[in-house]
């Protein structure tokens, strides 16, 4: 799905997505990544929801955004409280949804000028 936006130039927005990739400012990414309006970490390790570790969650917490959208792949799945501990300890709000819903929500919050991060799992085929 191609997304149309009126995003401020210089900010990172999600411009398209499908079952195997998500595009940020037109650049297609087929691996999981972390995104804020001004920063892209395109080598976030988890290949699937089941592969999420506390270290992956600590990387999200290190972004220091008060709102995190955790996109869990093609379907919504909820991580255990133990896995969320690095975010909870820093009082970071976490919304869990499928990755496509997280894409849409990220763009809305980013366009509103909110300090938001998206942690998006792009499930690898195979």
Structure, explained:
With 126 residues, the chain is α/β, with parallel strands linked by helices. The chain has one domain (14-120): MTH938-like (Hypothetical Protein Mth938, Chain: A, 3-Layer(aba) Sandwich), CATH 3.40.1230. It is built from 3 helices and 8 strands; from the N terminus they run βββββαβαβαβ. The protein has helices spanning 54-61, 81-89, 99-111; strands at residues 14-18, 21-24, 27-29, 33-36, 39-41, 67-71, 93-97, 116-120. Strands 5-4-8-6-7 form a 5-stranded mixed β-sheet, with helices on one face. Strands 1-2-3 form a 3-stranded antiparallel β-sheet, with helices on one face. A hairpin with a 2-residue loop joins strand 4 (33-36) and strand 5. The longest helix has 13 residues, at 99-111.
Output the helix-strand order. Answer: EEEEEHEHEHE
Lateral arrangement of strands in the main beta sheet? 5-4-8-6-7
Count of separate DSSP helical elements: 3
Structural class: alpha/beta
Query: CATH architecture, please?
Result: 3-Layer(aba) Sandwich
Please, what is the CATH homologous superfamily? MTH938-like
How many DSSP E strands? 8
Quick recap:
The protein has about 130 residues and is of the alpha/beta class. The protein contains three helices and eight strands, in the order βββββαβαβαβ. The protein has a single domain (about 15-120), classed as Hypothetical Protein Mth938, Chain: A.
Highlighted features:
3-stranded antiparallel β-sheet; alpha/beta; single chain; 24% helix; 126 residues
